[in-house]
Structure formats: C-alpha cells, structure tokens
Amino acid sequence: MALETPDAQHSGAEHPFVPDSGGASFSEFDLTLLNALQISPRGSWAQIGTALGVDATTASRRWRQLSDDGQAWITAYPVGQHHTNAYVTLECTPEAVHRVGSALCGLNCAYQVERTDGKAQYFAAVATAGPQALDDLVHDHLSRIPGVVSIRAELCLHVYHEGGGWQPRTLDSAQRAQLTTPPSDPFPVPLKASDRPLLDALSADGRCSYAELADRCGVSETTVRRRLGKLTRSGQLAFRCDMTQQAAGWPLNAIFEVDAGADLDRVGRAVSTWPEIRLCASTSGRYNLLVYLWLRSAQDCRRIEERLVALSDNVRVDSRRVTLRPLKRMGRLLGPHGAAVGHVPLDVWRDSSPRSA
Questions:
Q1: Max alpha carbon distance in the chain (Å)?
Q2: Which of 7, 9, 257, 349 could cross-link 128 (Cys pair, CB 3.0–4.6 Å)?
Q3: Per-residue pLDDT tens for 99-144?
C-alpha cells in the first residue's frame, strides 16, 4: 500500500550513504541492557532496572544515549499477516551501484538491504502482499531501475530462525524470567486500516510513549493502551530491539545458500540453534535453505561451511557471500559503521504505484 519513491532522500530520512559518527564498542552493561530490551522491548524502566540491578533512571538514560547515537533501536512490525516474504539478489553495472542501492533502501517493502561481494552486488529481503505483488515488484519496478542487469527472487517458505531472535546472551535465567511475559490472548486480533498511524509511530520508535501515540493517532491514551495491548498479547504485533553489530563484536555478515536435500528440516532446526545465526529459512529456487550469520571475522566463513556440510551427507553449499556493507535493517538506514542514520517506514509492496512520502 505505502511505498517510497526510489530516492530515499524524499522519505524524510537520511540518505543511506551518509557517513555516521564512527565506530564504537558496547560495554558489558550496554549488552545486558540491550539483551533486556530484546526480551521486553516495552517493559517499564523500573522492571528493566530491577532485573539488571540498577535504578530505572540509569537504565533509561543509557538507552536514550544509545538510541540517540543510532547504536540501538526498537521497531514494531506486524506478524501473522498473510504476506509473501522473499529474498532478492540483484546484479547491476558498476556505475549504477549507488543508484540501485539508494532505490532499494528507499522501498518500504525492503526491510533488509546489503551490498555483497561476488557477481551480484545486492541482497535484499522484501515483503509483498502476495506472489503477484512480488512479480510486480521485480519485473515492473526493480527491473526498470537504470543499470540493473539481472534479478533473482526466491520465496521464503518457512522461517526456522529470524533476526529478532538473535541475542548476545548476557543475561542469566533469573534475569530473563523477570523480563519474560508470554502472550496471554490466544485469539488473533487482525490489523485494521485505522492501525496505520499506530504502526508507523511504533516502527520509528518502539518505545514511543502512550501519550505520544495517542496524540499521533488522534485518540485517547486509554484507547491506545487497549488496542496496543490486544495486538501484542495476541501475537499480531511484534517488537524487536536491534543494535549496531560492529559495536556488539560481530562485524561481518555472511550469506550461505544451501541445498540440504531431504534433510532440510533437520538441518534447518540444527542451524537455527547456532549463536551466530540471524536468519535460517527454507526457500524456493535452486537451493532450499538460506543461512545468514553475524561473524567475528572472515576466517569464520570456512568454519561455518565445514559445520554446515558436517550436518548431513546431503548438504551442499550452493554459494557463499560476504556483506561488504549493510545498508538497511528493519527499516533503519545504516551508516558505514552500522549505526542508524535514518528511517524508512515498513510496509508491504501492493502495486506498481509507489506512494511518495
């Protein structure tokens, strides 16, 4: 429904190639705070502070610093909706590399964009309203970007593990128990068109206050609390705390396209438990498993490949790529050191008439 124009400058966010302020490293307290927010993204600062053994003001102040510096962010996004997710690989001419990257980053439906090594320069994860909408995106939009040479799209068939489940694992079981609140409403609450202002606000700031949400949505604070509570308890709206991977000590991204043959499910479940895994999903196309990881160094690529083929005699690594530069994650535009420098609201691709922001 809502689609940005290819030029991300018009989205109200920074251009995806603007440099950020430089590299940084998280302290031990930073990682425990971020781990707590991954488990309880909208938990009260009193609850988070108690779990970490600090006062609420200390936790709140440090989060605000990390958020303001683009080192961490919280995003809300709908789940359980009947959307088609796909992984798109693009090859373009050398002079078109930045133009194509800017176009991809400006799309609301592209929630992840990376520039990679190898023949194809870009990897993107997209969400569309269905297979026909994906075809429209690929053949009626992306193929018309000047300089695009080839496009390959594979559907996501099943997700074994996704990036929102990755954690630095700095909290003990007692701390995690204090922060965990399982969904309590088994009945799905479908999203409505009237939820759009709420989703847009929470996509930009997942910890946006109820008062500010009420102001943006033009309803009472009580109405916002009730609606948000229903959506989250029923599992229709998820919150995700992300962080700068370089500062977390995992500076390298690697993408493996794997054919696991008849052992797909067994291999997928096994890989999903690895601490490096950001995404493990079965796909259509010439391979049936996509494995995406955060790594400590380039040398880890060989180790990961050895672990993959050791899982089954049926496993064959079809291709492996290293990300030269991550440009976008969950709607956040990333600077060269991985810090968020802008935001493009998330939405699915529905037709060939993108909406200007």
A1: 59
A2: 349
A3: 999 999 999 999 999 999 999 999 999 999 999 999 999 999 999 9
Share of residues in the chain with pLDDT > 70 (%) = 90
At residue 227, what are phi and psi to the nearest 5 degrees? -65, -45
| Residue 165 neighbours by CB distance under 10 Å | 15
Domain residue extents for the chain: 192-235
Q: Which CATH class is domain 192-235?
A: mainly alpha
Q: CB neighbours (10 Å) of residue 207?
A: 19
Q: Around 92, how many Cα atoms within 13 Å sit in the side-chain half-sphere?
A: 26
Which pair of tokens denotes residue 284? 């259509």
Task: For residue range 53-67, list pLDDT tens digits in order.
Answer: 999 999 999 999 999
Q: Is the pLDDT of residue 6 over 80?
A: no
| Token digits of residue 194 | 């009237």
CA dist list (Å): 112 to 89, 124, 170, 234, 295: 12, 5, 26, 26, 18
Q: What is the pLDDT of residues 299-343, one digit of tens each?
A: 999 999 999 999 999 999 999 999 999 999 999 999 999 999 999
Q: Which sign does the torsion angle of CA 343, 349, 166, 39 carry?
A: positive
